[in-house]
UniProtKB/TrEMBL annotation:
<dbReference type="InterPro" id="IPR002013">
    <property type="entry name" value="SAC_dom"/>
</dbReference>
<feature type="transmembrane region" description="Helical">
    <location>
        <begin position="549"/>
        <end position="569"/>
    </location>
</feature>
<dbReference type="GO" id="GO:0000139">
    <property type="term" value="C:Golgi membrane"/>
</dbReference>
<protein>
    <recommendedName>
        <fullName>Phosphatidylinositol-3-phosphatase SAC1</fullName>
        <ecNumber>3.1.3.64</ecNumber>
    </recommendedName>
</protein>
<feature type="domain" description="SAC">
    <location>
        <begin position="122"/>
        <end position="451"/>
    </location>
</feature>
<dbReference type="GO" id="GO:0098978">
    <property type="term" value="C:glutamatergic synapse"/>
</dbReference>
<dbReference type="GO" id="GO:0046856">
    <property type="term" value="P:phosphatidylinositol dephosphorylation"/>
</dbReference>
<dbReference type="GO" id="GO:0043812">
    <property type="term" value="F:phosphatidylinositol-4-phosphate phosphatase activity"/>
</dbReference>
<dbReference type="GO" id="GO:0005789">
    <property type="term" value="C:endoplasmic reticulum membrane"/>
</dbReference>
<dbReference type="GO" id="GO:0099003">
    <property type="term" value="P:vesicle-mediated transport in synapse"/>
</dbReference>
<keyword id="KW-0812">Transmembrane</keyword>
<feature type="transmembrane region" description="Helical">
    <location>
        <begin position="521"/>
        <end position="543"/>
    </location>
</feature>
<keyword id="KW-1133">Transmembrane helix</keyword>
<dbReference type="GO" id="GO:0098967">
    <property type="term" value="P:exocytic insertion of neurotransmitter receptor to postsynaptic membrane"/>
</dbReference>
<dbReference type="GO" id="GO:0032281">
    <property type="term" value="C:AMPA glutamate receptor complex"/>
</dbReference>
<dbReference type="GO" id="GO:0004438">
    <property type="term" value="F:phosphatidylinositol-3-phosphate phosphatase activity"/>
</dbReference>
<keyword id="KW-0472">Membrane</keyword>
Length: 587
């Protein structure tokens, strides 16, 4: 069947081959992967040897080459998210990474350790929540893009027709993609967030869906991937689509977010907020134009909402962004700067209405996509809001949820779900679903990029800022600080390996994982901890005189504080930096 992949699979394993059997009704196909030659062929069920060890699987994620050789990655558990126009959407919840090799005796001790580290990286990416798929529906495209396709497009396999920006296992499926006859075994997987709810307003039932699609171009973690690359791909680029399905009519509203599209970096250095650095020699206008040329082609008009601070360390980025928009002088791009923190200080979050009022007319002009039960397109969305803050997470998500609610209000009134003059905010049951879904979306996007849940979700969930929310924001900020400084190098390497930005070469005599650390990297933190501990011990075990105790406390206190400032001064030497991809590729 065109445009689908097999839903029910069995994996049969022998010492020589993997046999992936299609178990859908009427299917006789078997994908055979030779564990020695790595050749992939298509056969039939009678070729499966009875001696094979059999287990059910729910999809092939792809293959990857590590030091020990090739590995097959499969989905072993899944969870049903819901049904989408009679198409089931699944979340992949567990995976298995299977070696082609039957033994590791051919590896040296260093190779064994490297292979173990690479496997840990792959498993780390797979352990980040948010992998979704459907065997019958193309999750990578918006409703509007799918409505504007040819019959030939509809006949293509899910892998061929997918928007490659959002296929996170595209690199892993490269061997299968080269053989069209096995495409029904190739399952495109989305990374991001999907939620579906059956809702009721005024006794009228409709489906409400929220999908966030994370781009695999310039993907990475918070401080190691900022700005754009030479192709114009922005860091942390996410396309978010809100969909309503009522009595056969379908409506959708699409927004995007992405890092400020300039060449800039913000490398961790143990400071709470490292200073952003704008590249002084790069051709910013060229990359900027590449970015927006592609955005205009895909989405139409662009309304930029820049939420960064207009003073302090964020100010130069805001000014540079505004200057680039003016230099480009495109009638398809409008720029709005809104200093979120200044406008909403002292918990005055009601002032967000200033921004919503400012863009209301623009939002009406952009409109939304609507198709009637007969499949006729009633309206098209003419462009998108492209929102950003520094991380494109917390402030951005708050604004996107408010813009999406305004669009939803218009859609539900047009569809006859809401009465004239009736406000969506007054529908308590739906409001709870709506706010929690957008807060969950914020948390998912934040965990995938920054390593923790989002900040400011108390406002998204309740519509107001709370003291408990501030405390939780403080806790998440501390966790972010630790991860950004001491574990994000590994996280960045894991993503680069998974997406194919780095390829393992077992013949390479120099392992990038065996770069020796400077002695001070290990010694100074230990000295600081010992000195601080001795300071506390001296206080707890006072000597015969306070003079003696004070002398010891001062000695160890000065030692610990001095060591701390030495570490802080040399901060970049103590953070966990990526080791797999060259600096120019992630700056």
């Amino acid at each position: 069947m065109a445009g689908t992949t097999y839903e029910r699979l069995k994996l049969h394993t022998t010492p020589e081959k993997f046999y992936v059997e299609a178990c859908d009704d009427g299917a006789d196909d078997v994908l055979i992967i030779d564990r020695v030659s790595t050749e992939v062929t298509l056969s039939v069920k009678k070729d499966i040897p009875p001696s094979a060890v059999t287990r059910p699987i729910f999809g092939i994620l792809g293959t990857i080459h590590l030091v020990a050789g090739n590995y097959l990655m499969v989905i072993t558990k899944k969870k049903k998210i819901g049904e989408f126009f009679n198409h089931v959407i699944w979340k992949a919840t567990d995976f298995d990474v299977l070696s082609y090799k039957k033994t590791m005796l051919h590896l040296t001790d260093i190779q064994l350790q490297d292979n173990k580290t690479f496997l840990a990286m792959i498993n780390h990416v797979l352990g980040v929540d948010g992998f979704y798929f459907s065997t019958t529906y193309d999750l990578t495209h918006t409703l509007q893009r799918l409505s504007n396709t040819s019959p030939e497009f509809q006949e293509m396999s899910l892998l061929e027709r997918a928007d490659q920006r959002f296929v996170w296992n595209g690199h892993l499926l490269r061997e299968l993609s080269a053989q069209p006859e096995v495409h029904r075994f190739a399952l495109p997987v989305l990374h991001g967030f999907v939620t579906m709810h059956s809702c009721s307003v005024n006794g009228k039932y409709f489906d409400w869906i929220l999908i966030s699609r994370r781009s695999c171009f310039r993907a990475g973690v918070r401080y190691y991937v900022r700005g754009i690359d030479s192709e114009g791909h922005a860091a942390n680029f996410i396309e978010t689509e809100q969909i309503v399905h009522y009595n056969g009519s379908r409506a959708s509203f699409v927004q995007t977010r992405g890092s400020i599209p300039l060449y800039w970096s913000q490398r961790p250095n143990l400071k709470y907020k490292p200073r952003p650095l704008i590249n002084k020699v790069a051709n910013h206008l060229d990359g900027f134009q590449r970015h927006f040329d592609s955005q205009v082609i895909i989405y139409g008009r662009q309304v930029i909402i820049n939420l960064v601070n207009q003073k302090g360390s964020e100010k130069p980025l805001e000014q540079a962004f505004a200057t680039m928009v003016s230099s480009l002088a495109s009638g398809m791009i409008r720029y709005i700067a809104f200093d979120f923190h200044k406008e909403c200080k002292n918990m005055r979050w009601d002032r967000l209405s200033i921004l919503l009022d400012q863009v209301a007319e623009m939002q009406d002009e952009l409109s939304y996509f609507l198709v009637d039960p007969a499949g006729k397109v009633v309206t098209n969305q003419e462009g998108v809001f492209r929102s950003n803050c520094m991380d494109c997470l917390d402030r951005t998500n708050v604004i996107q949820s408010l813009l999406a609610r305004r669009s939803l209000q218009a859609q539900l009134q047009r569809l006859g779900v809401l009465h004239v003059g009736q406000k969506l905010e007054e529908q308590d049951e739906f409001e709870k679903i709506y706010k929690n879904a957008w807060a969950d979306n914020a948390n998912a996007c934040a965990k995938q990029y920054a390593g923790t849940g989002a900040l400011k979700t108390d406002f998204t969930r309740t519509g107001k800022r709370t003291q408990l929310g501030l405390i939780m924001d403080g806790w998440n900020s501390l966790i972010r600080y630790y991860k950004n400084n001491f574990s994000d190098g590994f996280r960045q390497d894991s993503i680069d390996l998974f997406l194919g930005n780095y390829s393992v070469d077992e013949l390479d005599s120099h392992s990038p994982l065996s770069v020796p650390r400077d002695l001070k990297f290990l010694a100074l933190p230990i000295i600081m901890v010992v000195a601080f501990s001795m300071c506390i011990i001296c206080l707890l075990m006072a000597g015969d005189t306070w003079t003696e105790t004070l002398a010891y406390v001062l000695f160890w206190g000065v030692a610990s504080i001095g060591t701390f400032f030495i570490i802080l001064y040399n901060g970049k030497d103590f953070v966990d930096a990526p080791r797999l991809v060259q600096k120019e590729k992630i700056d």
